[in-house]
Amino acid sequence: MTRAEDQSPLLEIDNLVVEFGRVGSVRRVVDGVSLQLAAGETLGIVGESGCGKSILSLSVLGLLPSGARVAGGQIRLAGESLTGLSERSLRQIRGNEISMVFQEPMTALNPVIAIGEQIAEVFRTHQNAPRKAARLLAVEALRAVGVGSPETRVRNYPAQLSGGMRQRVMIAMALACRPKVLIADEPTTALDVTIQAQILELFRELRQEFNTSVLFISHDLGVIAEVADRVAVLYCGVVVEEALTADLFDNPRHPYSRGLLAALPQPDAEEVPEQLFEITGTVPAPDALPDGCRFNPRCPLATDRCRSEAPPFLTVGPAHRVACWEAGHGQ
Fold first, then answer.
1. With a threshold of 0.70, does the pTM exceed it?
2. Average pLDDT estimate for 160-164
């Protein structure tokens, strides 16, 4: 039994639909996504750019960009619906209950305000901490994420820090109020492999220490393998496969999942190929989706049925589901 199965889910996304545009020119970028996240669990969301990963995460926080709206479904935190809450109510939840680590800290951090002041603002806003107490809490928040000499670092500005250090600042801000759920949107993409490994290790340590649930979003299955208990593979706004991480890597059932795994470099391989595998074609635009299975124009197993009928989500193993007419092909 998985951690997600032996208790009620902390975060539930139920048949979520997110659309851009107005009536007559609607683009559906998230289409009927259902996911659950248990307390203390890390769920990886993986897929290429343009598959709807970031829009999915922003919808949980109520931070959708202009022109986007939740057109259907529910998002619940500890059984309480977040869908349709006022901006004032959502502000109370952000930071306190759900926080987010963004992909690029240089755009998320204010370049003209010292990092200590930015972290202290979280404590003043969400915990009503006095200014002096908030400053001390900011120092401790930096210490908790492994920033050396935090008493000095609080006076630094974002431009004075390395990319890895800026990301630690973002994590410190996100965890300042000990949220129940942490959303990490491509938090290691811009980092070199050494710093990336350090940040992933930090996520593991902090999850263990605070029992925080993590929704970890990435285009890189190699990163997901390092941190996630379960994986949901997203393509064109729909989940095409969901499984325990080990099961997905050992026995991927959807052709898209297999393609993503085949594209991973294999450092332990006896022979290094001259050219890495790549999935043919590109992710279609939301207003140009194919009929049937959305992956069918790029799929080597596609049949006429795949081109005309959208496949249902089928259970193919313990905690393993897939939406594919040819899921058993080649097994």
1. yes
2. 90
